[in-house]
Amino acid sequence: MMETSIWQPMIDRFDRLKAAGRRVDFWLRDDDAVEPTPALDRLIDLADRFSVPITLAVIPGHTGGELSHYLARHDDIGIAVHGWTHQNHATPLEKRQELGGHRPREIVLDELGRGYSHLKALHPSSFVPLLVPPWNRIDPGLIEGLPGIGFMALSVFGPERKGRSNPDGAKTMKSGSIASAFPRDGLSLINTHVDVMDWHGTRGCRDHREIIQDIIRRLDEMNVDEEAVGILTHHLVHDESVWEFLSRLFELTAVHPACRWRRVSDLIAR
Fold it and tell me: What biological processes does GO assign it (predicted)?
């Protein structure tokens, strides 16, 4: 049985959406995939159980045919470009970033182009033209070069629109500057908004109540008819509390008529 005490505020919000004839879209982005692992098996099995599509942000420079062959057996998985090698180029006094302004723009865009081509070749049927910057940070000056590579969307962490509050500003490099670059012809901004991990504390799962509060906060700030709730996970570092939370979230949202899990390719097309 699901504990309804901490989940009830979110259930109540979904019930109100249902009564109003509205529905909220969710999408799941999981970062840092490179190869098949027991943790990836567990994530895919859990998502399959509740028909939740997964967007895997794969690190191009560290992956190859092993992951490609493994994922070919699974449906409802989209492959996004997670930088090039997930290498930090920032100085010790800065937040980590691979796609910052520390190197010539041409070099960074060339690496992203190589990553795009590599993953598209490895995963021809599941590749999506989505860039997920490592550490959710990208220099705004690089954004205008992404459509020329073939990218149709960018995904970092935080609200897509200017003026919206960011529950964890440290997650996003120059969040306001990135939002200011949109709307942009040929490129959508499709972010994640709720992170299950306590990166600055236990490095395990955050308190479940806090994650639920973040989901409700996102529902408050978003346009339900035009935007989605992006859930961010990292399968390689999940503890049991993360798996428990995801199981309960999927269980609840999979059956509630006011909720719908979407492929990121559908969100890009929209």
Answer: carbohydrate metabolic process
Q: CA 264 to CA 58: how far, in whole Å? A: 15
- The boundaries of the domain holding residue 78 are 4-269
> Three-class SS of residue 80?
strand
With a cut of 50, say whether residue 259 has pLDDT above it.
yes
In Å, how far are 10, 161, 163, 234 from 198, measured between CA atoms? 21, 25, 25, 11
- Asked if 168 and 137 count as a contact pair (C-beta separation under 8 A), the reply is no
Cα separation, 241 vs 218, in Å, equals 22
Domain count, the chain: 1
Give the three-state DSSP class for 144.
coil
Instruction: Specify burial of residue 117 (Cβ count, 10 A radius: 0-12, 13-18, 19+).
Output: middle
- Provide the terminal-to-terminal Cα distance of the chain, rounded to the nearest Å: 36
Which position has the token pair 């590749």? 127
For residue 3, name the pLDDT band (cuts at 50, 70, 90): low
* Domain containing residue 113: CATH number: 3.20.20.370
Checking 196-203 for CB contacts under 8 A at 24+ apart, the result is: 196/231, 196/232, 196/233, 196/238, 196/242, 196/245, 196/246, 197/232, 197/233, 197/234, 197/237, 197/242, 200/170, 203/237
- Nearest-angstrom CA–CA distance, 206 and 43: 18
- pTM score, two decimals? 0.93
Question: What is the arithmetic mean of pLDDT over 64-91?
Answer: 96
Per-residue pLDDT at 4:
63
pLDDT reported for residue 178:
78
Q: Six-digit token pair at 240? A: 């049991």
Q: Which residue has the tokens 């190859």?
A: 64
Q: Percentage of the chain with pLDDT > 70?
A: 91
Residue type, 88: N
pLDDT tens-digit profile of 176-222? Answer: 567 777 767 789 999 999 999 999 999 999 999 999 999 999 999 99
